[in-house]
Amino acid sequence: MARPSIVPIALTLDDRTGYTLWAPPWEEDGEEWQAFLGSTVDVRADLNDDDPDAPDSKAVVHLFPSPAALAAFCRTSTDHDLSDHPVWPVVAGLDAADLTPDEDHRFDLDGVYDVVAENPDRWAVDELAALVDMVGRLAECCDTAGDDDEDDLLAEDDETVFESVADLVSRPEVAALGLGVEAYVGREGEDAWARLGTTVDELWEDVVEELDDHLDWTGGGSVDPDSYPSAAEEAEARAAEPDEDDDEDDIVDADEDDDADADEVGVPAVRRPAAGSTAVAPAEAATAGTASIQGTRFTATPAAVAAAQEFWEAVGILPVELVLPDGAGLTLRCYVQDRARFLGREGKVFLFPSPVELARFCAGDEAHDLTDIASWPEVADTDVLPLPGEEDRYDLAELAEVLGEVAGGGGGLVPQRVLLQPADGARDVAEYAGLTPVEALLGGTSPLGRALGRSEADPEAPMHPQDAGAVAGPWSEVVTAVRSAVVYR
């Protein structure tokens, strides 16, 4: 279970974007809790009710037109559901930059129809899974109909004001999103994706209507409802921002240091949050991460990366970043009959020092193993820079450092999931280069294989020093083998 933390998120709905805070699930006294920055507000009863003057109440999530407005509210207001959260004293001192969500915590509810209209690749499936998950969490925290019921409010027999949300998450084709892109492969998978599109067409408008009734687009009365940027204005503003890759997540979490500075990831640990209207103890909520491996040698604005990804996804060949102890570089990768194939030759992966150098090579006529891919002429002719997405960045070197720190008793709380992405990158290189020892080192019965199995089963479980010590050596062997298959260009 992750430590108590607070994460900035952004929601786009009805062509406007609002910013708020989410406290991912954490455990207290044997129960799981989560909350949003919100409160309970009084609502006049319907005039047709028997007692029209008696006010009703509902839970709302406060949204703000910018991280700066969110930061201003956090500095001055304590009348909300996160005021008693363990890390709130730190959040109250953060500025707009610290409260700006990363790409993984931006949820475009208007874009759902576009996503289901795409082919079910891993990006479409992951994006839709994240959207549905966040909608479910918002509904859990805002629903008051089942307050007297100890079960999950979205369980089948529970009373809920979010009937369409409950219907949505109960559909098998929607639940399959949690299985990843594999659930939509083959004829049965294609049928499931088609049913998913039908379900979205049928329910999504009602889902967002139910949800919007519990979204406060005035920031708790602190901002004008007309001040929220449209989706186009928001994208333009973000594209104009300089890219600043920090070494820490935009996640504030609890630590054992009572004197932690506001600029550090660490504040006093757990107390139960106020049982506010947007706080809930879900029966089976997924936990959010408190640490991640970061560090790319290349920078670009999120808008630039997103724009580039449209081209690269369309041609089916993606830019990949690989970071090794002796250097980092960019290459290209595709899958042929489910096997990884890289820009390289005779099992050697070509790594280039920059997107420009990689693009220059692609425009040349040197022979390589991607030449016979049907879409390669488009790659050779494009002026779209090869900018890798976060899911295609594999930092094998930093994982080695993290394992060493954890094995030595340092590094703080590191979740098991830090193994997964670097291991995926190593597997792909090993598959392409025929590195049989790597496949054995990552196999199911090896120490690394067992650790990866634990990571897949419970990615947010903390990695213990003895576990890190057991896999540090094998991982070093993996990195050495992968390095032997790389050629720096």
What can you tell me about this protein's structure?
The structure is a single chain. The protein is built from 16 helices and 16 strands. It is 37% helix and 17% strand. Helix 12 (396-407) packs antiparallel against helix 16. A hairpin with a 2-residue loop joins strand 2 and strand 3.
Summarize the structure.
With 489 residues, the chain is of the alpha/beta class.
Mean pLDDT across the residues is 79
Main sheet specs: 6 strands, mixed
Number of helices: 16
Radius of gyration: 24 Å
Shape call: globular
What is the element layout, followed by pairings?
Elements: E1 5-13, E2 16-28, E3 31-36, E4 38-44, E5 55-62, H1 67-76, H2 88-91, E6 106-108, H3 112-116, H4 122-142, H5 163-170, H6 172-175, H7 186-212, E7 215-216, H8 231-240, E8 252-253, E9 279-280, H9 302-315, E10 318-324, E11 327-336, E12 339-342, E13 344-345, E14 348-351, H10 355-362, H11 376-381, E15 393-395, H12 396-407, H13 420-433, H14 436-441, H15 447-457, H16 465-484, E16 486-488
Parallel strand pairs: 1-6, 5-7, 10-15, 14-16
Antiparallel strand pairs: 1-2, 1-8, 2-3, 3-9, 4-5, 10-11, 11-12, 13-14
Keywords:
16 strands; six-stranded mixed sheet; 2 domains; 489 residues; alpha/beta
